[in-house]
Design a protein that fits this description.
Layout (H helix, E strand, L loop, with lengths): L6 E4 L4 E4 L7 E6 L10 H19 L3 E8 L15 H9 L3 H18 L7 E4 L4 H13 L3 E4 L2 E4 L38 E6 L17 E3 L1 H13 L3 E7 L3 H16 L4 E7 L2 E3 L2 E2 L10 H6 L4 H9 L7 E2 L2 H19 L9 H16 L4 H13 L4 H15 L5 H4 L5 H19 L3 H13 L2 E6 L2 E6 L1
């Protein structure tokens, strides 16, 4: 374990704090996952890149991290104020497909974008539709404790029962619109303007495709209940770090805290890590405004996804970041020069363990200061200029890239064949071939996906299945 003290900005306290996990050496970490009704734009992915760095940094300095992420495939409405239609249903209507077909397609697309950006898959990825019994149980407990009520056949959380509903967002009743993507329509079933839906019934959305039996009628869960239940299912009732974009602070994360602490009876999460917006000159990036910027679009325009990752790492996660192709071009030049410099490192010279330890500590120290990625990259450049052997520089570059994940060492691997990897892939291809022969197409797809997660791409041809490492 690298000796360092980590400091993180905590949205809950509105200040930078020393990070002390609930259990020494272990970190319980949760990420708000995507609503899989459309492709993720690169603004969405900025949050996942920075959360990925946070997780990898914690592992780098020696923590045992368990990270959980949900997939919202039901319950997220077009307005964060519990109004409008379900985003998943909207996507299904747009593409004339079933909601579950939409969910699978865009979940796969999101995971593919993460792979291209070297974002590690969380230890647990749980779709909301897997956890209906957990949602119902939490709602039942909240009703028993008097924190929820039934009105108009829907179940609502009663925010008037809390001493400080705005503990995370530091807002007030008049600020209800802040963070809401569309106007909040008046819901006459609510006792208080800030109350939110825990369970919708068929009485409100008769055209909803995904419905389940519940004590309150056939219906489906509200968006906010999902993250609370999924995190507790896999991390327990005490969490160290909850991540998301700043637009999640209110109302989503505010509502998560309300229902989770009402349910458990104690403080739920100690540190809240929020990543700021990616903007264009015309304002905040979104799916409905301007050019729909995706990783695939950047690739079509000739950009390596690593250039976008570096673009994000050169800025602090708490600052708004303005995107432009001119800025991306500059970063592309920087990235290519950096790769060339690393590529030219020879394997000569002895590895200087003292220098290794010194630079690892400097690198960790930069990131320990509220995940200051630009400072960490400066340490990388300082190390490459230092009077130490190329062998030491190669080892340090590989270590730093465990966190930066910019494929800095890929050039060294070009042309090298890993015989163990080759044997493994050929074995999996044979297993996939047999699964297809037995018409077990689900297993065949599973094998392809498993290999894809490891950066191995299969291509079926007339001559057989070919594979390559991306």
């Amino acid at each position: 374990m690298i000796e360092t003290t980590t400091y993180l900005y905590n949205t809950l306290s509105k200040q930078v704090e020393e990070f002390i996990p609930n259990e020494a050496g272990k970190v319980a970490m949760y990420t708000c996952g995507p609503t899989v009704y459309h492709f993720a734009h690169i603004g969405n992915l900025r949050s996942y890149i920075m959360e990925d760095v946070l997780e990898k940094y914690l592992r780098f300095v020696g923590y045992d991290v368990k990270r959980v992420m949900n997939i919202t495939d039901v319950g997220h409405l077009t307005s964060d104020g519990d109004t409008g239609e379900d985003k998943m249903l909207k996507g299904a209507k747009r593409e004339h497909k079933s909601v579950m077909d939409i969910a699978k397609f865009y979940t796969d697309a999101f995971m593919d974008d993460c792979r291209k950006l070297c974002i590690k898959k969380p230890d647990v990825v749980e779709p909301a539709t897997n956890c209906i019994p957990e949602f119902i149980h939490m709602i039942e407990v909240l009703l028993e404790k008097g924190y929820a009520y039934v009105a108009g056949e829907n179940v609502y959380f009663d925010t008037s029962k809390l001493e400080n509903y705005y503990v995370l967002s530091a807002q007030n009743e008049e600020d209800l619109q802040v963070g809401v993507r569309e106007d909040v329509d008046e819901d006459k079933n609510k006792k208080n303007k800030t109350d939110f839906v825990l369970w919708f019934t068929k009485s409100k959305f008769d055209n909803q495709e995904l419905k389940w039996d519940s004590p309150w009628g056939v219906g489906y869960p509200g968006w906010h209940i999902e993250c609370s239940c999924i995190s507790m299912k896999h991390l327990g009732e005490y969490m160290d770090i909850h991540c998301g974009g700043v637009d999640n602070i209110f109302p989503h994360h505010t509502n998560e805290i309300a229902q989770s602490e009402a349910y458990t009876g104690h403080k739920w999460c100690n540190y809240w890590f929020h990543v700021n917006h990616l903007n264009t000159k015309s304002g905040k990036m979104s799916k409905s405004a301007g050019e729909f910027l995706t990783v695939s679009l950047l690739e079509e325009k000739g950009y390596n996804p690593m250039v976008y990752r570096l673009f994000c790492l050169l800025s602090h996660y708490r600052k708004p970041l303005e995107f432009s192709y001119e800025a991306l071009d500059n970063v592309a030049t920087t990235y290519n020069k950096l790769i060339k410099r690393i590529q030219n490192l020879s394997e000569t010279g002895d590895v200087d363990e003292k220098s290794i330890a010194e630079y690892e500590k400097k690198f960790a120290g930069a990131l320990a200061n509220d995940i200051n990625t630009s400072s960490a990259i400066t340490v990388l450049y300082d190390m490459l200029k230092a009077d130490i052997s190329d062998a030491s520089k190669r080892q340090l570059t590989a270590r730093f890239d465990e966190v930066l994940s910019l494929q800095l060492t890929k050039a060294w691997e070009a042309g090298e064949v890993d015989t163990d990897l080759s044997a493994y892939v050929e074995k999996m291809i044979e297993e996939r071939k047999q699964a297809k022969k037995e018409k077990n197409f689900a297993r065949a797809d599973e094998i392809r996906d498993e290999l894809k997660e490891k950066g191995i791409v299969l291509k079926d041809t007339r001559e057989g299945t070919l594979w390559s490492v991306e």
